[in-house]
From TrEMBL:
Main enzyme class: transferase
Keywords: Pyridoxal phosphate, Transferase
Any Pfam family the entry gives: Aminotran_5
Gene3D superfamilies per record: Aspartate Aminotransferase, domain 1, Type I PLP-dependent aspartate aminotransferase-like (Major domain)
Name of protein: Putative cysteine desulfurase
Lineage: Bacteria, Pseudomonadati, Pseudomonadota, Alphaproteobacteria, Rhodobacterales
EC number(s) reported in the record: 2.8.1.7
Signal sequence residues: none
UniProt keyword annotation of Transferase present: yes
Entry keyword annotation includes Nucleotide-binding: no
Listed InterPro entries: Aminotrans_V_dom, PyrdxlP-dep_Trfase, PyrdxlP-dep_Trfase_major, PyrdxlP-dep_Trfase_small
Highest taxon, organism lineage: Bacteria
A GO term for molecular function: cysteine desulfurase activity
Length: 418
């Protein structure tokens, strides 16, 4: 386990760039992980190394062969990380762009008069794509309401509205506003019990950094992540497609391979950084367990990350040392409840009598990086039903420390005395 092991925490933090200081601001605590996690130092090194290589894949020369082998290794590594026995991994512009492509393909291939189902908790990356392409394809869109009190949507809520003519479904794995995770396997099972041939596509962007993805257990057809939120870098997205989705008629070049989804030459360095991410989870799993098999070590890392992040959010909510937690502060309201078992390393709050941007500025002046979520096209689906114009998002990751939590609590506690 990570908690109570300061040497391991130091080792973890040493593997990330800018873990305790910003190159523009100086020393700071990074609680903006949902907006983009810290980057592994190995990712920075790998990116620089491959950026200098002039060769392209698919040529008959040693460099091209090495690039293809690098991509093949990254895809195999990601299959272990996400536990995917079949299907294929592709790289694209971003996680959002890949969700749009997968959802578009599923919708235009759906039988006429069928339905698309999704939930109101979803990020617009999937929700916008589903509603847009349902309209273009002449499909009805079915909206499953999420629970405002818990910030989640359940399998039972999907089951109440799914019908045999549902051809496409979208699921959010974790919310970047409430911080709550959804039971993807249970939701998928509920959908397939009624519409077994439904194409199910998952937005895994917010969830990926927490180290627990099991595609074989989910029974879905598409899953997208944004690597910059999972310890890699900006500039690309990764998607997994089932064999069924891969084979559907999709945008492609004339006479190109039937299951080819990538356009143009991919950045080998981007793929290579995913091997760095997998190697990190593998390393961490070896430090927190005696497992020897790569997948078993990755699963151990995921459990350790979940447990430690739960410890940090508990400290944030209930206090640490002699500092009261956010839940003990009368001037603070926590979204989705204080003790919510679905929470994944994120606590969103509002401070009585203060606009959230003002609080974020005060925290930033004290060297604590957080973020404002506003009731706009990104977060209005969650905040508007709560009657909130905005909130402060405090997002943690397993390289954060209890001391950093204490720094934030001290500042927020003083806001109540103003």
């Amino acid at each position: 386990m990570i908690q109570g092991n300061p040497d391991l925490i130091a080792e973890i933090r040493d593997r990330f760039a800018h873990v305790d200081s910003c190159p523009f601001q100086g020393p700071r605590v990074f609680f903006e992980n949902a907006g983009g996690a810290l980057t592994l130092k190995s990712v920075v090194e790998t990116s620089a190394r491959f950026a200098a290589i002039p060769d392209n894949q698919g040529r008959d020369n040693p460099a091209a062969h090495a690039l293809v082998a690098t991509i093949d290794k990254a895809k195999a590594d990601m299959a272990v990380l996400m536990n995917a026995a079949g299907g294929q991994f592709i790289a694209g512009e971003s996680g959002t762009e890949l969700l749009f492509r997968m959802i578009r393909t599923a919708c235009v291939n759906a039988p006429k008069g069928s339905k698309v189902i999704g939930s109101s908790i979803e990020h617009p990356a999937s929700r916008s794509a589903a509603r847009r392409w349902a309209g273009i394809a002449g499909l009805d869109y079915v909206n499953v309401r999420h629970d405002d009190a818990t910030g989640t949507v359940s399998a039972e809520a999907y089951a109440a509205q799914v019908t045999p003519d549902v051809a496409v479904a979208t699921i959010l794995h974790a919310s970047p506003v409430t911080g709550m995770g959804m039971d993807v396997a249970a939701i998928s099972k509920a959908i397939r019990a009624v519409a077994p041939n439904c194409v199910i596509i998952v937005d895994g962007i917010q969830h990926a950094a927490h180290g627990q993805i099991d595609l074989d257990a989910y029974g879905v057809d598409g899953y997208a992540i944004s690597p910059y939120k999972a310890f890699s870098r900006h500039g690309f997205g990764i998607a997994w497609l089932s064999d069924k989705l891969s084979a559907m008629h999709h945008d492609m070049l004339i006479d190109a391979p039937a299951t080819g989804w990538e356009f143009g030459t991919r950045d080998t360095g981007a793929y290579a950084t995913m091997s760095d991410v997998v190697a990190y989870f593998d390393w961490l799993g070896g430090r927190v367990s005696d497992e020897t098999a790569p997948r078993a070590r990755i699963e151990a890392a995921g459990r350790a990350i979940h447990d430690y992040e739960s410890h940090l959010t508990d400290a944030l909510i209930h206090g640490t040392g002699n500092l009261p937690g956010l839940g003990d502060m009368e001037h603070v309201t926590i979204l989705a409840g204080e003790d919510n078992p679905a929470r994944e390393g994120l606590v969103s709050i509002v401070v009585d009598g203060m606009a959230s941007p003002e609080v974020v500025t005060i925290l930033n002046e004290q060297g604590i990086r957080t973020h404002t979520r506003k009731a706009d096209h990104y977060s209005g689906n969650v905040l508007n039903p709560l009657g909130l114009p905005d909130c402060i998002r405090i997002s943690l990751c397993h390289y954060n420390t209890e001391q950093e939590v204490a720094q934030l609590l001290a500042v927020v506690n003083e806001l109540g005395k103003a």
